[in-house]
Amino acid sequence: MDVQRKNKLRSEIGIVILNWNNYRDTQECLRSVDKQTYKNYQVAIVDGNSTDNSTRKLQQEFPQFKYIYSSADSGYSGGNNLGISYVLGNKVKYVLSINNDVVLDKSCLKELVKELNNNSKAGIVGPRMYSYSEKSIFQLSGGYVNVFRSKPLPKWIKENESSSKKPFEVIKLPGACIMIRSKIIRSLGMFDEGFFLYYADTDFQKRISDKGWLQISTPTAKAYHKVSATIKGGSSKMLYYGSRDFLFYIKKHYNIFILSYCFVKSWLEKSYHILVKDNDRINNLIFLNKAYLHFLLGIRGKKI
């Protein structure tokens, strides 16, 4: 049974976590959720059609949580939407979307809920996101999309005594762990499933900010991110979806002149990088050009 049923409470938080062929990272994530000092939550783990039986193993280890098995790999956005639909059906007040390669400090949920309860202007809150491998540095913000550099700009800094301890507004929170008011999701809708792996959180958060809601970083809430544990950095899959969905994001939120600039500039930069630095040049050039072709053809969602 879910945690809130065990405690005879209606959940205040609905937590959504995706798993796709990644038992170890999801296990560590769920253990950190299970150790939270704040207990008024429910958890939905969405399996994106894994092939390694990892979610079945997790279900045996954590039977108190809800497991949703998708018949197809619906990606980041589709998987989150399945989980969000489930927890919204249980009338939660807040929804927490967590990447399965994130580990929460034991008081993380308590601090995030406190900020949303105390700040009526906050639509999304997130923890201070530390590097899992180098815990002395954290991500100051999630990195807004700078269209003139064709990529998000996260800013990592080393923690010291002068680091802010009070909540503060950012342009974009790290999408790996965000808590959103349920009423906002009901009003604006869920993740855009056209963004299969990347930019779904960026698009989602921008839509919320555009309605006047604030994104608040909460330093007293701490989490640790392994970064790209499921989709390995530098993979052809990352190159394809990162390139294609960036262009769809720009098309959705900016004008044709900025889109044209981004299209040309990003293609030139990435092609140059592949030719100069990549070992698998031919394969990566094929995936890169496929991404740009599919953008021109309007092909969204899962393709490779």
Structure description:
This protein has 304 residues and is α/β, with parallel strands linked by helices. The protein has 2 domains: 3-225, Spore Coat Polysaccharide Biosynthesis Protein SpsA, Chain A, CATH 3.90.550.10; 236-297. The protein has 10 helices and 13 strands. Strands 1, 2, 3, 4, 5, 6, 7, 10, 11, 12 and 13 form an 11-stranded mixed beta sheet that branches. Helix 9 runs antiparallel to helix 10 (281-297). The radius of gyration is 19 Å and the shape is globular. Residues 4-8 have low confidence and may be disordered.
Task: Itemize the secondary structure elements and their pairings.
Blueprint: H1 3-6, E1 13-19, H2 23-34, E2 41-47, H3 54-61, E3 66-69, H4 75-89, E4 94-98, E5 102-104, H5 108-118, E6 122-131, E7 137-141, E8 145-146, E9 151-152, E10 155-158, E11 168-170, E12 177-181, H6 182-188, H7 200-209, E13 214-225, H8 236-253, H9 256-277, H10 281-297
Parallel strand pairs: 1-2, 1-4, 2-3, 6-13
Antiparallel strand pairs: 4-12, 5-13, 6-7, 6-12, 7-10, 8-9, 11-13
Keywords:
single chain; 304 residues; alpha/beta; Spore Coat Polysaccharide Biosynthesis Protein SpsA, Chain A; 2 domains; 11-stranded mixed beta sheet; two-stranded antiparallel ribbon; 23% strand; globular
